[in-house]
Specification:
Shape: rod-shaped
Structural class: alpha+beta
Order of helices and strands: EEEEHEHHH
CATH topology of the largest domain: S16 Ribosomal Protein, Chain: A
CATH architecture of the largest domain: 2-Layer Sandwich
Helix content: 40-55%
Strand content: 15-25%
Number of domains: 2
CATH class of the largest domain: Alpha Beta
Low-confidence stretches: none
Largest sheet: 5 strands, mixed
Number of helices: 4
Distance between the termini: 115 Å
Mean pLDDT: 86
Radius of gyration: 45 Å
Oligomer: single chain
Strand order of the largest sheet: 4-3-2-1-5
């Protein structure tokens, strides 16, 4: 993919830039396809061939953010010029944002706790309404024990006869 970007030239601590069309995978100081202008950041002088810039953008070249700003300042309009807007956030704004985030988290935590308590109360209410399966088993066991005792008390007592040992001779 093609990109229109700045390529640094000039002396140490005195930069100037060429506006070049290049493959976006190419190294910054590598070969470029065409130079369409130059820019001096100290004097803010821009020399730009607007026709060539539009021609390359129509072919699919996308300008970098800085080049997009330069192109807009020169009056070049095209759909591929997209400028990302970055905004610094102050410490006060960060603190306010953190406080809001913490308040939201605390509110969510309280809602979860309230929902949990409501669910536990609902479960306890259902348990109170219906006897538990353990209680049912305990009652059934007690009833069967009573029945067995009643049967034993109504049966006449039979003494088992002692078996006589057989003599083996």
């Amino acid at each position: 993919m093609l990109s229109i970007r700045l390529r640094r030239t000039g002396k140490k601590k005195k930069p100037s830039y060429r506006i070049v069309v290049t493959d976006n995978r190419a190294p910054i100081y590598g070969k470029y396809l065409e130079m369409i202008g130059h820019y001096d950041p100290f004097t803010k002088v821009v020399v730009l061939d607007k026709e060539k810039a539009l021609e390359w953008m129509n072919k699919g070249a996308k300008p970098s953010d800085t080049v997009g700003k330069i192109l807009e300042a020169q009056g070049v309009k095209h759909k591929s010029i997209v400028i990302k807007k970055f905004r610094a956030v102050s410490k006060k704004e960060l603190e306010v944002q953190k406080a809001q985030d913490e308040a939201e988290k605390e509110k969510e935590r309280q809602e979860k706790e309230a929902a949990k308590e409501a669910f536990e109360q609902q479960v306890e209410a259902e348990k109170a309404e219906q006897p538990s399966s353990e209680e049912k088993l305990q009652e059934a066991a007690e009833e069967s024990i009573k029945e067995i005792k009643e049967e034993e008390s109504t049966k006449p007592e039979e003494k088992p006869e002692k078996a006589e040992p057989e003599d083996k001779e």
